[in-house]
Design brief:
Elements: E1 2-6, H1 10-21, E2 25-29, H2 33-40, H3 51-60, E3 64-67, E4 79-82, H4 97-109, E5 114-118, H5 126-141, E6 147-151, H6 161-166, E7 171-174, H7 178-188, E8 198-201, H8 203-234, H9 238-246, H10 267-280, H11 286-298, H12 301-310, E9 317-321, H13 336-347, E10 350-354, H14 359-366, E11 371-372, H15 376-379, E12 385-388, H16 400-406, E13 411-414, H17 421-426, E14 430-432
Helix pairs in contact: 1-3, 4-5, 8-10, 8-11, 10-11
Amino acid sequence: MKITIVGTGYVGLVSGTCFAEMGLEVTCVDTDRKKIERLEHGEVPIYEPGLTELVRKNTAAGRLRFATDLAACLDDSEVVFSAVGTPPDDDGSADLRYVLEVARTFGRHIRKYTLLVTKSTVPVGTAQKIRAVIEEELALRGVEVPFDVASNPEFLKEGAAIKDFMSPDRVVVGVDSDRAKALMTKLYRPFLINNFRVIFMNIPSAEMTKYAANAMLATRISFMNDIANLCDRIGADVELVRQGIGSDARIGTKFLYPGCGYGGSCFPKDVKALARTAQEHGYTMEVVEAVDRVNERQKGVIVEKLRQALGDLRGKRIALWGLAFKPETDDMREATSLKTIEALREAGAEIRAFDPVAMDECRRRYGDDVTYTQNMYEAAREADAVVLLTEWKQFRMPDWLRLHATMRGHTIVDGRNIYDRAEVAAAGFGYWAIGR
């Protein structure tokens, strides 16, 4: 079976590589010629554990190819996946220009039945726009070529994307024809051979499922951050509260960890886009809009705690442990580190940082405004405070005595609540966490 993936960003490259690993012949298409040339030489432009090895393996085997021209791939493809970006517009809505351009190219060049599947996160109703664009292009050509559109939203977690794709807990597919359903069933059966969990539904429901899932997870995070902020004011410990409510089977423990705000390419964008979609249909999603407001406020909590601990931050040396929005990725999109760095710069603080993989990305954004170090202890040298922003495993058990001897001041701001207060205090530090 031959398929084409349009877009070699996070979703497209992971999806295409994993499909190739399962034996399909895959062509990944991108208009960025330099990126395609790098991929052809086994250079992967994003950090995802295990991805580089799989790309090189399947490229060498001839199952994974790269190209810049979608039109040239259509005759050989049964299924085309659109995995291009949908960046937020200024009003929070999803920008569909790239999605619709793929549809336009598809309509201009297909000569046989082909299924176009949208894997990008798109608002409800996008499939109708895609279908209309394809039909318009076919009419301009004066031809009738059968085609279908479908929705297959991704549920990949950065840092665990390959496992998520190869062993999914569910695959959501929106279709409106038996022929499209049969093709998608054939495509995914090898992944789910032991427990066939493809959930078929109509296309608007599939489009909505992606947004609803991300909004629900973001809601749990913002709810716990709200609870944590109140705990700080009344003397409760949010970790104990989390254990208490998480033991209720109706609630569970996942995504109940308070911290300094969520980031990444999905939650912030999708929450805003869902709220905007509701507004366009004359409805206000009060909960979803509040989730976004709470999260934006939460990203400022780190600098608030630094001011509480240190007072005026001008001239203070602050060490940041972690820059990526989460561990096992170099992605800094909407990361709390961005807001923290901006606030510290405005306050006149000196910033030293260490992240296992995201420092190049930070350097691209801030240049020499941040000092980058070789390890976590070098970042903390002569620092007035250490701030944990990303809970990389190597940050979980610091040598507190070594750290104490390295630092000028002795303040720890734990933005992810991973340290033991008593242990940190016993080493001579002032400890500031979220809701504790």
